[in-house]
Amino acid sequence: MNREALSSEHSDKLFERIYDYVLERILRGEWKAHEKLPSVRALAAEFRVHRLTVFKAYQLLKQNQKVYVKDKSGYFVHPGNRLSVETRQDPIISAYVQESHLSEIHQVQAAYKLSKAVLDPNLLPNLYFSEYVKQVFDLYPKVLGTYSTTQGDQELRERLCRYFVDHFHFDLTADELLITTGSQEAIDLLARVMVKPRDVVMLERPTYSPAIDVFRRQGAVLLAVEIGKEGYDLERVEELMRKYRPRLFYVNPTFHNPTGYTIPAEQRKRLVEIAHRHHCLLVEDDLYRDIYFGKEPPLPLFTYDTTGTVIYLRSFSKYIAPGLSIGTVACRPAIMKLLVRAKSLTDSGAPLLNQKIFLHYFFSRRLQQHLDKLRIALAVRKEIVEAELAATDWTWISPEGGFNLWVKLPEEVPMDQLLEKSIEQSITFVPGLICDPLRGHQSWVRLSYSYLNEQQLREGIQKLIRVYDTLK
What we know:
There is one protein chain. By secondary structure, the chain is α/β, with parallel strands linked by helices. Helix content is 44%, strand content 13%. The strands form four sheets. A seven-stranded mixed beta sheet has the order 4-10-9-8-7-5-6, sandwiched between helices. It has a four-stranded antiparallel beta sheet with strand order 11-12-15-14, with helices on one face. α7 crosses α14, α11 packs parallel to α12 (265-277) and α16 packs across α17 (454-471). The N and C termini lie far apart (65 Å). Residues 1-9 and 82-100 have low confidence and may be disordered.
């Protein structure tokens, strides 16, 4: 069999092998930023394949922002894959530059955690919560001796189903709900079930950093969609879906993390229609829905779904009871079956005690009343941060809900230096680079106002501004 016949017979496998070979050497730093890569002819000879097979691999690497082309000169390593801070020893800075792990930043011991988008424990009704824990043991005396089902406690799923139907008009049954330990587990499960290497996954730009990491780990080709204060360019979204046939589009349309933007109501139904037309799943992450400072946000995308196009993720961990880590996935039976099977390989379901506590705690009238107070407290903290930033030349758009401010700094100070010096001053924040699938937004930061109390927020923002001023 000649070489061309061999390459034709195994074209998919060989294309994947070449793609992985080039990408691995780039990520390991063997080929540096702007370094010229082997020619198509040279790689074809090395792998004994047709040149079109190598060309296909290079084109996908180019599309995924791993390489770029110089006219008549060949392929070169894209500078966004590794940045030149190898001499730094701080693992947090290393993660920021090389791996984009938000968890590394969260692990820093700091007095001013502007990076932490969870609720200040002092804003929770802790005494009231402890009373409910006691009631749960009275109602379910054997709860600690019992496993939940993998899909989640039936009683909780039925109650959540009624909640979603009553509040958001979902077409839903309890069997179409899965209980997870927060939304991050849900994203991981979906990625493992729905995405295989080289599948195209659309993400907002910017987006939730761990989602980027999860889909990259699966070997997905990431396709970025700009999100702005007016929402998406839906014509562009449809063009990308038509051209690249993405497996799914991960979206956070309500008080978006990190920008705080909310997709207008009129765009939501159209997005569902576009995604259905192009057979693209929409994964809707709706974690901040209850944290609004004025009017309630538009209905979820899932409300408009009649064809199984939308998978709905809802986490209650951020602001109800972080220690319980309760989240849920709503989707149609075919996908639910796959998710439950995947979850069964890692655990026997979320802890039953946590589910029972959440069931009686979340749906209590007292907690629903507390949410009103919580919104006021968080709105005040947001205003404190904005008041401190008003004295700078930094810019942002004030969100109408959520936990975060998305702030643009002048480009005169390198972000890795600002992060390093801030950590030295016991301050953490989220650099915009790790929120961007294309590794841009290098002059942006996410500042969270939910975790620190009012005095700590003032001090933390003031200290961050002083650190920035010393680097100018």
